[in-house]
Structures are given as structure tokens and as C-alpha cells.
Design brief:
The protein is an alpha/beta fold. It is about 30% helix and about 25% strand. The structure holds oxa(dethia)-CoA. The site of oxa(dethia)-CoA (UT7) has 18 residues, from α2, α6 and α7.
Length: about 350
Amino acid sequence: MSPVPAIPGGIVQPPSVGVRFAGVGSALPSKPVKNTDLEKLMDTSDEWIVQRTGIHSRYVVDRSRGESTLSLATQSLDNALTDAHMKPGDLDLILLATMTAEMSCPPTACRLASEIGAGTIGAIDVTAACCGFVYSLNMAYGLIRSGLYRSIAVVGADTLSKYLQYDNSGRSTSILFGDAAGATILRATDDTSKGLIAQAMHSDGNRWVDLYIPESLEHDFPDGHEASDEKVQRVQMNGRAVFKFAVGTFSGVIQQTLDDAGLHADDVDMYVCHQSNARILTAARDRFGLDQDRLYINIDRVGNTVAASVPLCLDELTKSGRVKEGQRVMFVAFGGGLTWGTSLWQL
Ligand code: UT7
């Protein structure tokens, strides 16, 4: 429950510990939305969506049933705790990666800690758009390795549907995104062979205009972007620019991480990537000559679920036995910010 005690003099003793994935879980909302459902709301077609994105269906929250970022995060973390055979009181800290917090104050992570019954532990929202979960894995690793904490829940949860417009004005984004949550628990272990091998976290704030959600009509629209009331609180994305950026960056950051680790693409058992667009993922798979099984794709069933995308894949892969202890796994993401990053693990 409590963090590792400080040694006399107030300095934490850095232990020689490994870090392991103790449990995983995920949650999807109750409302499936198929491409054919979207055809009834906007000028689009199943064929266009499948060809451009690889998506057939996604899930969105039903707010009348109380579903939200918080409810999905809670369900996914409950599932991860069960998987880890742990009680909420065994956690020391929660990092919740989300760009769709319930409100700007309080942090949704605090309510999550309360909902699961974890007492008064530290709880932080991490906002790094689609990279939030991968960034949080790297941060949690550092906190455990430093000796400050022993058990950290890393959760990714997003309900971007609340910032989408399900009509013609929002057809280029509403077809892409879905809602979900995924959670994992990282724990200190005496087995020092387990843990992070290499990582990367990058951002380019000059490119923020390619993907943003304006809060204010007067202040938040960049030069050259037409401001309107209808666009406030709605995702604004230059899809083509983000797509181009993503194809290059995805391969670049994977290569950089492999180089840092002194590994080849084939030395990694599984690539667990942010599900942005099936074409971006298959381009990366082709670039590294990976066989189909080694870079997981589930965007066809769930769409792009922002910070939930990577942990949702991890949960599916773990449950199906395709990711297991002893493997090397690379987590990869990119998104608004613009941000991009990796986290390469020895499980
Ligand atoms: O996770 C966060 C990071 N985000 C991403 O990774 C998104 C990356 N970008 C993409 O995935 C793609 O850019 C999209 C799927 C969003 C769009 O595909 P695209 O091939 O880049 O299409 P486009 O935006 O260039 O639009 C092509 C045409 C346009 O019509 P005109 O101007 O050529 O007449 C659009 O108006 O397709 C039209 N269009 C649609 N048509 C049917 C846009 N949305 C739709 C739609 N249905 N839903």
C-alpha cells in the first residue's frame, strides 16, 4: 500500500528491481456503431470507410446508461486487478491517460481511485492524446525503478465520441474514433531481467494545429482556420497531414528504439501499436518486413480509441495467449500534440 520508505536523511534508496506486468484488463461501451449505421447519419459509405481506414465497426458510450470515461476506466481497472489477483489497496499510484477527462477539475484519476476503493493513493491524469498510455508506461517504469513506488496502475481511457459530430460536418472524424478503456498493473519484482529495454517520447508543438479541440470561439482557432460555433468542442483534424506525418514517424520511432536497444525488427515478438488507421499500420508492417501475426490490428472492430487503443490491444493479445511472459514487446503510439513514442519491454 505505502511507497517504499525513505532511508534516514530523506533520500530514497534506489533498489535493484525489475518491473513486470502483473495484470491487464479492458472495457468497451455497450453501443456498437457499424458503418451502415453511420450511412444513415451522413453522406458516407461502408466501402469508403473500410477502404480508407480498415474500420467496420466501433463502440460508443451510452450516457443514458451512465457510461463515460470514468465508468470504462473503472471497469477496465477492476478487470486488471482481478487478473493480477490483487486488491485495490495493493496499489500505490494510478496514472490515467486520457484526453476526455470527465471535467478539467477534479482529475478523473482521483475519482477512479475512489470508485475502485483504492483509498487515498496518488492519482494523476496524463494528457498526451493517443500517446498517453505509452508515455505513462515509461513514467511508471521510472517511478518503480527509482524505488518510490512498487505497484502502479496505468490506465488508458477515452470517450472521444463526446467531441464528434455525427453528421456531414464531422464525417471525416466521426467515422474514425470509438470509445474504450484498457488497464495494466506494473509491479516491482526481484527478477531484474524484466522491465523496460528502451523507450522514446517526442513532441512537436508547432504541429498542434493538425489535431485539436477548440474550447473558445475567440481564442483557439489558429490563423487560416475558419472559426465557427459549430466547431467549438469538436475534433478538428487535418487527416491528410496527420496521415503523412504518421506513416514516416511510426517507422522512424520504431527504428530509433530498435537501434537504442541494439535489436533488429525480428527480435521483437509483438508490436502493440496505436490503432490509428489500418493503412498506417500495414505500412509499418511492410516497412519492417513483419509477418501479419507480429503487428496486431483490431481497428476493424473497435476503431481508433485514442489512449485506450494500446492497452485494449494488450488485453486482447494477453487473453488469447499471443503475448506472454518471456517475450519482447514494443508499444508504439502517435497522436495530437503532435506526439509520438515507444516503450520496449522484456516481459
Ligand atoms: O489517432 C490520431 C491520429 N489520427 C490519424 O491517424 C488520422 C490519420 N488520417 C486518416 O486516417 C485519414 O486522413 C482519414 C481516414 C481521416 C481520411 O482519409 P483520406 O484518404 O485522407 O481522405 P481525405 O480527408 O483526403 O478526403 C478525401 C475525400 C474528400 O472529398 P474531396 O475533397 O476529394 O471531394 C472528403 O470530403 O473524401 C471525402 N470524405 C468522405 N467521403 C465519404 C471525408 N470523409 C468522408 C466520409 N465518407 N466519411
